[in-house]
Amino acid sequence: MSSGATSVTCPVCEQPLGYTGTPGRTLSCDAGHRFDAAKQGYFNFLTGKGTNFLEDTSAMVQARDAFQAKGHYEPLALALSQLINSHHHGSSLDVLDAGAGTGYYLASILEHSPADERDALALDISRFAMRRAAKVPSTLAVVWDVWRKLPTADRSRDVVLNCFAPHNPAEFQRVLRPGGICIVVTGEPEHLNEVIEPLGMLSVAPGKQAALIEKFDAEGFRHLESTKLSYRMNLNTDDLFQLAFMGPSGHHLSPELLHQQAIELGDQAVTASFGVHAFVTQG
């Protein structure tokens, strides 16, 4: 097996899943549960279960893909790659991206890893995001709710990436190997503060770092470090629309109105500010 399936477990019975039939098209377990890939290459493990959370829409994902393609968040992607490479030195790298979105950060991590073998499992509730993540080399993209038990075996992953997504530290602890690293990325309070109000975006609440560290400490993680990455982005009106529409605000913003607001606002220098928090498993 390859492309993320080496340690993937059945969401029904938790037995190991393996490819059967045409490579990359069907996953099944010994109990007979079977999952067929969508034509875009991703698997949907939420079939029949559903989720209480809203998936990012096709339009939101298109906006995110367009914004990321321009390299505005490339400094963050490179910082994540460097952090992982400084911590993990094995010949193989197994990554779980919990809340992977388009797979943008995951793709950078896999591309810049010196490991001889790379294997990744990308999880997100958005089918439209997983269509893009499925194109990342060595990656199995699965529609799944990261609040639930993650469909990968105990101690099967070297790295868990949790970038702008819900935190499930108990599950992250379960799936990481001893000494594995979990990287959580959050927005800092000043993140995008020049355009949050005029574009009707959701702001970042202050004081989250202490609560985050306490939450992970309670599940047996050791806080390795927290660093702040801040820089300025020069954004045109298309960038501003994509920035506002690609995130949680996109669920309630009118794209037509947002386009007009971005045009009225004009080109802007905008602060990008991220908190990058690293936790390691004990033992």
TrEMBL record:
Q: Which Pfam families match?
A: Methyltransf_25, Zn_ribbon_RlmA
What keywords would UniProt list here?
Methyltransferase, Transferase
Q: InterPro entries annotated for this entry? A: Methyltransf_25 (IPR041698), RlmA_N (IPR048647), rRNA_m1G-MeTrfase_A_prd (IPR016718), SAM-dependent_MTases_sf (IPR029063)
Q: Which GO terms describe its biological process?
A: methylation
Domain called Methyltransferase: residue spans: 95-180
For this UniProt entry, the molecular function terms from Gene Ontology, in alphabetical order, are: methyltransferase activity
Q: Which Gene3D superfamilies match?
A: Vaccinia Virus protein VP39
**Domain 23S rRNA (guanine(745)-N(1))-methyltransferase N-terminal spans what residues?**
9-46
The protein, known as: 23S rRNA m(1)G-748 methyltransferase
Q: What is the lineage of its organism?
A: Bacteria, Bacillati, Actinomycetota, Actinomycetes, Micrococcales
